[in-house]
Each structure stands twice: as structure tokens, then as C-alpha cells.
């Protein structure tokens, strides 16, 4: 079996149906060899919506902020912001230059991801970034969430 299946059980009403589905999948999969079944609490990882919002603000920063004499792609800005938030480290590369090591945004919780967007918001304010409509919607939602917390 080459793919992972996840079943979320939200309450007692779901247990029978979901466990039956798991039982059937395990029996089918065993024909191809051993399988592994894991039980864990649902993840509090970032949402797809948060991810889409991140790229909106990174696009604005990449188009408007000159960083040490050059404009960087949005992927580079993601690395810069996540490094600042996670206090990542850099090490010399194998053939020169430097490589950032440490956490990834894909491993961030929803709250930590909101912290990342707050950091980008503050950076944008300090560097006169004019946010696009998608980015403004993002930042307004996270400002409201931060104020409510």
C-alpha cells in the first residue's frame, strides 16, 4: 500500500462507521503485506486557507521590498520570515554560500502560523508595503483574531 489514509472520528456517533471502514481497508491491504494503524489526536496544523493567505502577503512583499540591493522571490521571503520567527540557524553550504536549517512552515500550528502572518504584517508596515486586496483580507482577519485572543 503506497498511500496513507486518515479517518477523523469526531464523536461516538462516528465510531462504528469509521472503524468499520478502517477494518475493511486493513483486511484489503493485508493482501499486499503488513500494514500499520496509528491512533492520534487531530493535528492543529495550518489550514489550506492560511497557506493561500501566506502566499498573498509574500507576493506583495516580493514585489515591493528591495532587500540588500535586490528583489527576492516570494519563496525566499517565506524562508526569511520563517527563519526570523523560528530562530533558525544557518550553516555553510557544501559548495559555498549558506543553508538555513530548522523549522518549516508546514510543521507550524495554526497559532504559530498566525504569528508568522503577524510578523509579515509588521515588516510590511515598517517597509511601506501596500497590501493587495487578497493580502488585506488576510491581515485584517489575523489582526481581528489577535485582538480577540
Backbone shape: extended
Helix content: 40-55%
Integer-rounded radius of gyration: 21 Å
Provide the succession of SSEs.
Answer: HHEEHEEHH
Which structural class is indicated by helix and strand composition?
Answer: mainly alpha
What is the mean predicted local confidence, pLDDT? Answer: 85
Q: Give the termini distance in whole angstroms.
A: 43 Å
The residue ranges in which pLDDT falls below 50 over 5 or more consecutive positions are none
Main beta sheet: strand number and arrangement? 2 strands, antiparallel
Q: How large a portion of the residues is in β-strands, by DSSP E? A: 5-15%
Please characterize this protein's 3D structure.
The chain is mainly α and about 150 residues long. About 55% of the residues lie in helices and about 10% in strands. It has five helices and four strands. It is extended and about 60 Å long. It starts with 11 loop residues before the first helix and ends with a helix.
Write the layout of secondary structure elements.
Layout: H1 12-29, H2 48-64, E1 66-67, E2 70-71, H3 74-86, E3 89-92, E4 98-101, H4 110-126, H5 133-148
Antiparallel strand pairs: 1-2, 3-4
Care to give the gist of this entry?
It contains five helices and four strands. The chain is mainly alpha-helical and 149 residues long. The longest helix has 18 residues, at 12-29.
Keywords, please?
149 residues; mainly alpha; two-stranded antiparallel sheet; two-stranded antiparallel ribbon; 5 helices; 8% strand
Amino acid at each position: 500500500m503506497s498511500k496513507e489514509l486518515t479517518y477523523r472520528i469526531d464523536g461516538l456517533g462516528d465510531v462504528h462507521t469509521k472503524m468499520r471502514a478502517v477494518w475493511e481497508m486493513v483486511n484489503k491491504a493485508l493482501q499486499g503485506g503488513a500494514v500499520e494503524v496509528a491512533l492520534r489526536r487531530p493535528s492543529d496544523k495550518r489550514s489550506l486557507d492560511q497557506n493561500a493567505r501566506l502566499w498573498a502577503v509574500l507576493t506583495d512583499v516580493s514585489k515591493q521590498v528591495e532587500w540588500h540591493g535586490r528583489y527576492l522571490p516570494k519563496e525566499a521571503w517565506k524562508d526569511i520570515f520563517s527563519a526570523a520567527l523560528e530562530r533558525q540557524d544557518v550553516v555553510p553550504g557544501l559548495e559555498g554560500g549558506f543553508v538555513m536549517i530548522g523549522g518549516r512552515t508546514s510543521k507550524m500550528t495554526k497559532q504559530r502560523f498566525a504569528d508568522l502572518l503577524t510578523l509579515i504584517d509588521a515588516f510590511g508596515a515598517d517597509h511601506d508595503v501596500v497590501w493587495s486586496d487578497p493580502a488585506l483580507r488576510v491581515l485584517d482577519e489575523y489582526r481581528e483574531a489577535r485582538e480577540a485572543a
